[in-house]
Amino acid sequence: MALADYIAEKPVVDTARLRLRPLRPDDVPALEEWMADKALYAYWGKGPGKTDKQPALLFARPAKPSKSFHLGIEEKAAGKVVGDLWVYRIENDRTATVAIRLAPSRQGRGFGTEALSAMTRFCFACTELRHLRAEVDVRNAASRRMLEKCGYRREGPVRHGKMVSVRCDFCVYGIRSGTATCAMEYGVRDWLAGRFAAWYGRGIMRSGATKLERNGRNGRGGAVRPPPSPCPDEP
Ligand SMILES: CC(C)(COP(=O)(O)OP(=O)(O)OC[C@H]1O[C@@H](n2cnc3c(N)ncnc32)[C@H](O)[C@@H]1OP(=O)(O)O)[C@@H](O)C(=O)NCCC(=O)NCCS
Q1: In this predicted model, what pLDDT tens digit does every residue of 17-60 receive, in sequence order?
Q2: Which residue, by CA, sits nearest to atom 12 of ligand 1?
Q3: Which atom of ligand 1 is nearest to the CA of 135?
Q4: Cα 92 to chain center, whole Å?
Q5: Hey, what domains does the chain have and what are their CATH numbers?
Q6: Considering only CA atoms, which of 162, 158, 172, 174 is closest in space to residue 46?
Q7: Report field, pTM of the whole predicted structure over 0.85
Q8: Which residues line ligand 1 (CB under 6 A)?
Q9: What distance in Å separates the CA atoms of residue 120 and residue 162, rounded to the nearest whole number?
Q10: How far is the CA of 214 from the centre of ligand 1 (A)?
Q11: Residue 87 pairs with which residues in a beta bridge?
């Protein structure tokens, strides 16, 4: 499977306690319970928007075809959606940004870690994505801890940067498929699947790449930029 296979039909990912799945109109009453809660937006880069205040608007128009995912996080035991997550800002089908939020009443139970690690595993095993990242306000201790538990590592601090529409100090966290961290976090079988996908993907890229790209040039006289290296700076 590849990102293009999920344009019309988004994936469903099961974990022990959760199901990550597309949102449905019958989720609206559950979404209304928490989506507009201001506590969620302390480090979100903006306050609740129109659709957060009126979740029914999410279904007012047919969704635009896109490779991005916006999935609800259903708590199986409660039978309702208690959070949502995004895989978006997809660049060259290789890198994407993740974001997640949970109803305040459902935080602190490990759901964030469970949902994000399952989504990360899914992206590396079932799509061509090879690098996921997240931007986190430095004060957002819960989110930073959750990302670290999911195997994400701090790639760099941004001082007084713009996170969505708010200026703050934030960290960029990232995880790459095929790293030792992935092998430990996700098990050798998934790691091997990721390596195979990377190898297969490179084959496709090679055959589709221009001669300049194959020679490491970008066609504008410059070298193709290597991926950014991890930056251990404290924010
Ligand atoms: C970030 C968020 C999704 C985390 O979900 P969660 O289910 O509460 O997280 P978990 O229960 O998996 O906890 C992750 C870790 O953070 C720790 N943690 C939770 N709240 C914390 C806090 N206020 N301060 C420090 N650590 C905290 C937990 O103890 C746990 O670590 P541990 O297992 O070592 O004890 C949730 O807090 C949230 O929705 N926040 C609001 C939206 C947001 O800011 N999203 C992040 C944008 S990327």
Answers
A1: 999 999 999 999 999 999 999 999 999 999 999 999 999 999 99
A2: 110
A3: 48
A4: 15
A5: 3-214 (3.40.630.30)
A6: 162
A7: no
A8: 40, 43-44, 99-102, 107-113, 134, 136, 140-143, 145-146, 149
A9: 25
A10: 43
A11: 69, 98
